[in-house]
Amino acid sequence: MDFLAVWTLEPPKVKIDDIPNFWKRKIGTAFRAYDRNNDGTLCYEDLMGIGDYFVKTGKMNRKHADLVYTSLKKTAEGTADPPCDMVTFIRNIYANLIKKDKEQIAKLNLFEVWNIWFSALDADDDNYLTLDEYKILWDGFGLDPRFADIQFSWMDTDGDGKVSREEFQDAYRDYVTNLDTDENNINRFFGPLIEL
Questions:
Q1: From CA 188, how far away is CA 153, in angstroms rounded?
Q2: 54/56 Cα distance (integer angstroms)
Q3: pLDDT tens-place values along the chain, 196 residues long
Q4: Where are the domains of the chain?
Q5: What string of DSSP letters covers 141-194?
Q6: What is the CATH number of domain 3-125?
Q7: pLDDT in the model for residue 8
Q8: Residue 143 to residue 137: CA distance in whole angstroms
Q9: Of 149, 79, 81, 80, nearest to 93 (Cα)?
Q10: The whole model's pTM is what?
């Protein structure tokens, strides 16, 4: 189950006002990226719509298209009904992160889905993403393309001009689990942060 699937977990006993604003903005930004139809809720149809868009705009071959849909179906497991709103989404993820319950965090499976995404984006199967391959992710989520280069450079920790699977997963892990409130942390995995 991906972090997006946490809306099916027990409702948290966390007040939205008790969550650090910077972190809320990060997770709210991820929510907006997935809420493809901008109706304020996430559901199965949003996720499959993202898949359709990725496959079409990324001109993906069958193998890579199947990986996109596999990733999104894993994300959607058990989440089709009822749809999740942004506040519930943020509260559930935060509640599970602060519990520091290793078993629960393991269930969130923060990395399996993004490992699949990496493989889907890696068009030449060389285990690295080029900037052009990475931009397919930004385009598919409808993110502001002006910032793709900045995020790519942030992920490219060894400065070799490409992003390895490990660098990609580390960036995703940091984005979701780092509760640091430093506004200068430029990890913008899902683009520029929204205001809440």
A1: 11
A2: 5
A3: 445 555 445 555 778 888 988 899 999 999 999 888 889 988 888 888 888 888 887 788 888 888 888 877 777 764 545 678 898 888 888 877 776 655 555 555 556 778 888 998 898 999 999 999 999 888 888 898 889 999 999 999 999 999 999 999 889 888 888 887 777 777 889 998 888 8
A4: 3-125
A5: TT--GGGHHHHHHHH-TT-SSSEEHHHHHHHHHHHHH-----TT----TTSSPP
A6: 1.10.238.10
A7: 47
A8: 8
A9: 79
A10: 0.83
What is the identity of the amino acid at 75? T
CA distance 171 to 152: 10
- Peptide bond connecting 11 to the previous residue in cis, omega within 30 degrees of 0: no
For tokens 């490409």, what's the residue?
Answer: 162
DSSP H or E segment with residue 51: helix 44-57
- Residue 58 token pair: 């990324």
- Number of Cβ within 10 Å of residue 55's Cβ equals 20
* Integer CA distances (angstroms), 181 to 50, 84, 127, 177, 191, in order: 30, 25, 32, 12, 17
**Parallel, antiparallel or unpaired: strands 84-85 and 163-164:** unpaired
Give dist(CA 114, CA 107) in Å, integer: 15
